Automatic annotation (TrEMBL):
Main location class: periplasm
Species of origin: Spirosoma oryzae
Top-level taxon of origin: Bacteria
Localization per Swiss-Prot or TrEMBL: Periplasm
GO molecular function: lyase activity
Record's keyword annotation contains Nuclease: no
Protein's UniProt name: Heparinase II/III-like protein
Key words, A-Z: Lyase, Periplasm, Signal
Chain segments annotated as transmembrane: none
């Protein structure tokens, strides 16, 4: 029954053209069953020479990290890999026809866990070690892993041929590995390696290109998956000259040029409304631009300008410690895992790339706001010594960052930074307010029901948080919680979401936000916005935020109307970050964090009842934070609530003050009026 309901709701999200496309896909997949196990005989007239300027002699020694992270687990990449195993449960996926594999219910385990190691993100690491040390052990490991993958993953057999995004991430890692190894020279000097290239590696690459071109993610699935598909095929077709490569390259080039504009606003903000995905998506566009430039066939000025705007948004939305506002889905996704340290900040790495490509002083400043060097291994692999020289030639700006408002997109960054003569670090009050759409396309797959939510970071420490994602398909209870309205710092009415959740990654009846007013100057930032997410129960929520910078005070006013015929419970939620400690005195809460001496004092409206909840599971989850995929921990949530009678409206006023801990005086008395007065 659940499967039937999901199928019905999924059909509801499709246009007639998409229904026709899905029907054609279904016919194709039945026909493709006959191609299971296909292994092409591929031979190139000439193996491609490297186009990435990798010189191991100019690279500082890179530590070898054999333990490959797979979400909350690790895999030792020096040992044989079970390519169909979910290491979190010990379950294996069947070696059946790829499109028959159940990746949604969790009956065979978590597909995300299995897919993560099958992205082969560790192969470029082995290639770097071989080139730096000359130790044949690392090359043998590389060859053994690739041969093993080919043997255990016949074409269209098993879950690793299910998803096209996974296919294209492998293509990109093979491209980078080929360039690091200088595989053409190695094949010329080593007959055994040449045999590996001819009988294993090139046939695998050709299989992946064929699959990529034949299985596009169009219509309501045309999100980051489609970007990955175009990027993987573009890079591969630009580099390896198969008979079809010219056609593949033209198709993928056109797709990249289209999607970088379609999936971003003019200000460079990605339309999926999933902040962590920005670094993931931007790496696809970065690789495509680098390959186009190095191949002598650059992408258009429009592509380049849009890419620059994407990086400019990243430079704005990071806080002083490089922490991003975690709105929407996140799954720790990476395109490349070339890093000298962990945890690795790929947003800062991308800003270093931006400094190289565009000579941007702010991008370099933001790339270097840590004790890690901005020019990292990934950038060295992509740009070489010339890239390092270009990076060093950019003089970073040294300005205090201010607020940045994006009213058309619905993202608002309120910021106050200060630096005194004796301070070695900036102090910063950072607020991200969300009046954006739920997500992208008809299903908004990676959006959360977080209209009019906000986050607050103090000195780079997360005080009021978006609680994260935790999982996608396999844990419905937790999936439903983390994407819910109740899990965000906004108003929730009767415990209902602001849109109808019809599946783990399927939203129907999406709300429409409306920005009524926004402005910013050196003293004050303001936003007033509303949404229609509670129209089905005849309720309305409008929120005003006013950040007064001289006193580090955020004033919030919530206007809630109940135009229906029954009473409604109105909750105003404040979700603390994972390290937050809370002290309560009546309507006032003092939040502290171990990494800053400054505190946050929250005084909520006197009409609200209050409680602080941490790690609740019954009657429903509340008070949880997920700092990464498949990991959750208790965190404090300030739940405040009241009952709003039929035909009434209410104005709720709250004050949030950053500074030394004080018990703030009561906020102005609540106003309750007849909704029709």
């Amino acid at each position: 029954m659940t499967t039937f309901r999901w199928f019905y709701n999924r059909l509801r999200s499709m246009s007639p053209a998409e229904v026709l496309f899905r029907t054609q896909q279904s016919v194709q997949k039945r026909r493709d069953r006959a191609r299971m196990g296909w292994l092409p005989a591929v031979q190139l007239d000439k193996l491609p020479q490297p186009i990435l300027p990798f010189d191991p002699a100019q690279l500082p020694p890179v530590p070898f990290l054999p333990e490959q992270p797979v979400f909350r687990h690790t895999i030792d990449i020096t040992k044989p890999v079970d390519w169909h195993l979910d290491v979190s449960t010990g379950q294996r996926f069947p070696l059946s026809y790829a499109h028959d594999v159940d990746v949604r219910t969790g009956r065979s385990g978590s597909a995300k866990y299995a897919w993560e190691i099958n992205r082969l993100l560790f192969l470029p690491q082995l290639a770097v070690q071989y080139r730096q040390t000359g130790d044949r052990y690392f090359l043998d490991q590389f060859v053994a892993a690739t041969l093993s993958w080919q043997i255990e993953n016949p074409y269209l057999t098993g879950l690793n041929w299910y998803s096209n995004i996974e296919v294209n991430i492998r293509l990109l890692n093979w491209f980078v590995s080929w360039n690091i190894l200088d595989a053409s020279a190695l094949a010329a000097a080593d007959p055994a390696f040449r045999d590996f290239v001819d009988t294993c590696w090139l046939p695998l690459i050709y299989q992946h290109c064929t699959y990529s071109r034949s299985n596009p993610s169009y219509f309501s699935s045309a999100n980051n998956h489609l970007i990955a598909e175009y990027a993987g095929l573009f890079v591969a077709a630009s580099f390896w000259q198969f008979p079809e490569s010219a056609g593949w390259e033209a198709y993928a080039r056109k797709g990249l040029e289209t999607e970088i504009v379609r999936q971003h606003s003019a200000q460079g903000i990605n339309r999926e409304e999933a902040a962590e995905y920005i670094q993931f998506i931007t790496d696809f566009f970065l690789l495509a631009q680098v390959v186009a430039d190095r191949s002598g066939k650059p992408l258009s000025a429009t592509y380049r300008n849009t890419f620059q705007q994407v990086l400019a948004y990243i430079a704005q939305f990071l806080d002083v410690r490089g922490t991003f506002p975690r709105y929407g889905d996140e799954d720790d996704g990476r395109v490349l895992m070339l890093e000298e340290y962990r945890p690795f900040n790929n947003f800062r790495s991308l800003l270093a790339s931006g400094a190289i490509l565009f000579g941007d002083p702010l991008m370099k400043q933001r790339a270097e706001e840590s004790d890690r060097l901005g020019f990292d291994l990934k950038n060295y692999v992509l740009f070489g010594q010339a890239g390092r020289d270009a990076y060093e030639a950019v003089i970073p700006s040294n300005t205090l960052q201010g607020s940045k408002l994006y009213p058309r997109e619905g993202h608002f960054i309120f910021r106050k930074q200060t630096r005194s003569a004796h301070q070695t670090q900036l102090t910063e009050t950072y607020i991200h307010a969300d009046a954006a759409p739920l997500g992208y396309l008809s299903i908004a797959a990676h959006g959360h029901a977080d209209a009019l939510s906000f986050m607050m970071h103090i000195d780079g420490c997360v005080f009021l948080a978006d609680p994260g994602t935790y999982s996608y398909q396999t844990d419905p209870l937790w999936r439903n919680y983390f994407i819910s309205t109740r899990a965000h710092n906004t108003v929730c009415i009767d415990g209902q979401n602001q849109a109808r959740q019809a599946g783990a990654m399927l939203w129907l009846d999406q709300y429409k936000p409306l920005v009524l007013n926004s402005q910013s100057d050196e003293q004050v930032d303001e936003l007033t916005a509303t949404h229609n997410g509670y129209r089905s129960i005849r309720c309305q929520h409008t929120r005003s935020l006013r950040f007064e910078k001289d006193t580090d005070t955020l004033y919030i006013i919530d206007y809630v109307s109940n135009l229906g015929k029954q009473a409604r419970q109105v909750e105003v939620m404040f979700h603390g970050g994972p390290a937050i400690q809370v002290q309560q005195n009546g309507q006032t809460f003092v939040l502290s964090h171990p990494d800053t001496t400054r505190q946050l004092t929250i005084a909520v409206d006197a009409a609200l009842q209050t409680e602080c909840i941490t790690g609740q599971t019954e009657p429903a989850p509340l008070g949880w934070y997920s700092d990464g995929f498949y990991h959750r921990a208790p965190s404090p949530t300030l739940r405040t609530w009241l009952t709003l009678l039929p035909n009434q409206s209410i104005t709720l006023r709250h004050r949030l003050v950053v500074g030394a801990p004080t018990l703030a005086p009561p906020v102005q008395q609540t106003n309750t009026i007849n909704a029709y007065a």
